[in-house]
Amino acid sequence: MKFIFRILLFLFILAIGFAVVGFYFTFYKGLPNHNTELQIEGINDAVDVHWDPYGVPHIYADNEDDLFYTIGYMHAQDRLWQMTLSQLLIEGRFAEFLGEELIEFDEHQRTIGLWETAKKIEAEAPDSLIQILEHYSDGVNEYISQNEKTVPIEMTLLDMEPLEWTPTHSIAMSRLMAWDQNIHWWSELTFAYLEDRVDSQKLESLFPFYDDEYPTSLNSEETRLLTASAMPMLDQEFKLRSILSKNGTNSGSNAWALNGSKTESGQPILAGDPHMGLSLPGYWYEAHFSSPTFNITGATIPGAPFVVLGQTENIAWSITNSMADDTDFFVEQINPENSNQYIADSSNGEAVFREIQWRDEIIRVKDGDDHFYRIPHTQHGPVINTIHPSKELIADKMVTMKWVGHEVSHELWSLYKLNKAQNITQFKDALTEFNSPAMNFIYADRSDNIALFSVGNLPIRDYNPILFRKGWDPSYNWQDWIPFDEMPHVENPAKGFVAHSNNKLHTDDYPYYISTFWEPPSRILRVTDLINARDSINVNYTQDMQQDVVSELAREILDIVLPQLRSAERNNEFSDVFPYLENWDYTYSLNSTAASIFDLFLMNLSQNILQDDMGTSAYESLIRMEHLPVTIVLNLLKDETSFVNLSTDEQSISSNEVLRESMIETIDQLTETYGDEPFQWRWESLHTLTLKPPMLGEAADQPEASATLKMIVENLLSKGPYPAVGNGMTINKGQYSWQEPFEMNLGPAIRRIVDFSQPHRSYSVLATGQSGNPLSAHFGDQTDFWLDGRYRYIYQDSTFFQQSNYETTRLIPAN
User: I need a labelling partner for 556 at 20 to 30 A (CA). Which of 350, 499, 775, 810 fits?
Assistant: First the structure.
């Protein structure tokens, strides 16, 4: 008996030993040693990498080749799984490594064609750029070759090996950024979907820009079928972004620059906080580059070697999404006598046919047969309804997508020149080559210049820009690009500041079309008011501005709604909630009860006004983009006549009664979920943030997910939930989906402030941290700072060595 017990004890200890060893090799062995010396193949001279207390590398290299090699090595060391996911996304290779259920996403990505476009760009890229990207790729691949047995935990769980990185991948990363920022088409397709499902008079009330003179020969049935065949692309895009934790439907930002006349020090201040989907690890990776030709700090994107948001000794900049319309959908007429041809031109009364061009794709499938996929193209781009084939529904017509991002341009070369720019003239010159995505660059420098430049190729076009365009009529084609110098821009305005929060920049007499669906002005109004409220602004006030959670939208709506609710109230039924709303300062702080009441009330009001007229399916499509229902409801509240007409198809009902019913629903829902007392409805009880890993976070949420996967994701790869301030309309953005309230899914992925009175350092904080390894000290180590509104310093001169603790990794040539 003792013998058997000893054997069992031995086996138990052995199993524990194997588990410990496995755990060590899976997790801890992959952690980098920041105090070490590494022999590296591929560098010319020794490189020193000094790590600050938050894992930010300060790279000191004697030449550019070694500098870019080293940033590639460091990106791979800290973010290899994130970079690998980007490779799978860019190339459309999910099924090859993760199984046949992801084939549909590979088809989606290959139809968009990021990889094909990147190869075209690479063929025309400057030789100097390709050389830089080769050095960067060599650094990535050297790290992979040195760490073959210590792959990221995600790869271990999915039984994957790292993929080789190439210059094509870095170029494709710039196009992936462009696609991520290309969100206008979401609203455009949604509008087209509504156009044939809502009465034209009512649609005009919803969208004041609406033009009922639809300039095509399509009948209503064709419009309905074409829209139905195109909408699945939008559905697929949302599904894929959810899997990759790129949630949130307004990839926006705030940024402003103040010249010396507006600051306490007399020197410019620049602030920026790009809004992204929030996940672990985060989107940005911070670094400091130092070489004989470089001295820059800022935020990079793992997969590309240059600083995207940066500061040199003399200049600084941030970016915001310009919300530009750089995508159009064309209806193509198929030749009735040859289904492989389409009408390319019928302007002279006689059809000119062209052959449909096909690109054949082979999608490898893990544990399955290869999947063959053919992607048709016309002169306007890929046929998008083949993502979900439905040709039988639209007979002799197809829908194609024309996107600026399919054109050859060299954004990485532009960023390289931006990173080396030392004045506003050099900065502007670098921007002339930044064509996709269309962005706003907010700029400041030591010479007290401030500026805002809208950049990007935007087409000049005729006719209604938000509806299907006739592919067979050349007059509907893009004619040219808006000249760089004629894009909206402002330099050194008399008011002493420039600012942007995804709002419309130009006046109505601007000669070109840029966009239709802007963000509501709530954030830019608040930014402007806060700047104008002070004659002398310092860094502390700027930090307070970035943390501000006052909603001008809530103020505007409640000014309209509260008096009507007062008159609609019966038997003091709202006596418990009125004090909260009437005394509210419109702040989305954690302890605000009014914020909870108002946001839920706004969603109920929107549904009660709009859903009956649109139908459930159309309404659900609409509310995927929060800025659309918010804008519509505000417009309707301002025009009570439209509000009443929209309330029901059956009978007229007063706006007061709709407001009353919406508030009753709100109180009932809050009571049922959170308790009887309004103090239990505080914003912190509703609005939370959970940081999850891309791909695995979604997988762990599925009912069929294993207990082991759930445990690893929830306890090791995720952080939260955290109570979170703000909402989608506050400067400190805390957006959530109206379909799944109130889980925050988008916000400032980084906050940066540059004060030129202290040019040797900047202020920064990430929503997460630098590392993608869940056992690293820098995995989510900045989240508490970010939630609390605190910042760190990033130094860019020798002050770093006096003011900061650091560790040093020295890379030396292997031979």
Answer: 499
